[in-house]
Amino acid sequence: MKFDDYKISGFYDELLTERLTARTGAGKLIKYLKKLKPQELQQRKDAAELAIMAMGITFTVYSEGDNIDREWPYDIIPRIVPQREWQKIEAGLEQRLTALNHFIDDIYNERKIIKDKVIPADILRSSKNYRKECQGISPVFGVWAHICGSDLIRGDDGTMYVLEDNLRVPSGVSYMLENRKVTKRVFPELFKDYNILPMGDYPSNLLDTLSSISPRPMEYPEVVVLTPGIYNSAYFEHSFLAQQMGAELVEGSDLIVADDDCVYMKTIEGLSRVDCTPSAPCGPTSLIV
Which residues make beta-bridge pairs with 149? Predict the structure, then answer.
């Protein structure tokens, strides 16, 4: 494809401007890639695929019919997000999640958004995901959605947009964390040249968040990760999060609801009360520098 055709197509190049100059923060990466011969780049790609296979990073595509685990697709060319841009995105996402929590709290309590005719009442009544059991509930800290997976896309104008917000069992964060490990293996030099923001503390932050909403005032609440089992497409994520948080990985058959209306986990030592369980969260795969 000629460059003129490329500009007409409306695509946005993450590394180069229309004048083929480096975008902000991408100069070192472009200079580094130029030094690599095609066979060297292929070797890095092969090394990444072998690492993904050895680490067991897989997913399942149910639509293909066979339900066979596949290795996680990985682009060895990292996306560079300057810290100033990320700070703006981060602030916007925090504001967005705050608004979403206010919205959920409103529809299960005062319903001002219905009374003010911002949305029709029929939309709420016809929603299959609306839970009447939640009416009148006031969760701890006023937070209904502790984890949000917002899908971001880059428009052809260079602006980041939110494609959708996933509050109902969002998944993908384990792939983000493992992608960072693979990048360190394939391009260790980049971590010397760039001041990349760390993200390895995500599992511990998630555990702290879940522990903070435990209904029992304990130093170490019982947190479990609920999974449908090994044939679920996100099983890698479930097992990864459980291992990283030091939490138990359980299936539905491992849990019971006792006479006190509390959930208990079956163990070899008897029943153990469960305080909270996460959905599998997601996050960005970029390098924030």
Answer: 166
Return d(Cα 201, Cα 178) in angstroms, integer. Answer: 13
Residues paired with 283 in a beta bridge: none
Q: Convert 60-91 to b/e letters by CB count within 10 Å (16 or more is b).
A: beeeeeeeebeebebebebebbeeebbeebee
Phi, psi of 45 (to 5 degrees): -65, -45
Q: d(Cα 180, Cα 200) in Å, to the nearest integer?
A: 9
Task: List CB contacts of 269: < 8 A, sequence separation 6 or more.
Answer: none
- The per-residue pLDDT for 216 is 84
pTM for this model (two decimals): 0.80
Q: Looking at residue 136, what is its pLDDT?
A: 94
Domain boundaries, the chain: 79-168
Report the 3 state secondary structure along 116-151. Answer: CCCCCHHHHHCCCCCCHHHCCCCCHHHCCCCCCEEE
Instruction: State the residue for tokens 């981060």.
Output: 90
Question: What is the bridge-based pairing of β-strands 80-81 and 149-154?
Answer: unpaired
The 10s digit of each residue's pLDDT in 158-213 is 899 999 999 877 778 888 888 898 888 888 888 888 888 888 899 999 999 889 88
Six-digit token string for 73: 């697709």
Res 91: pLDDT: 97
E-assigned strand segments in the chain: 58-60, 69-71, 80-81, 149-154, 160-166, 224-226, 248-250, 255-257, 263-267, 270-273, 287-288
- Using alpha carbons, select from 2, 4, 3, 24 the residue that is nearest to residue 14: 24
Q: How much is the CA Rg of the chain, to the nearest whole Å? A: 22
User: Residue 98 is which amino acid?
Assistant: T
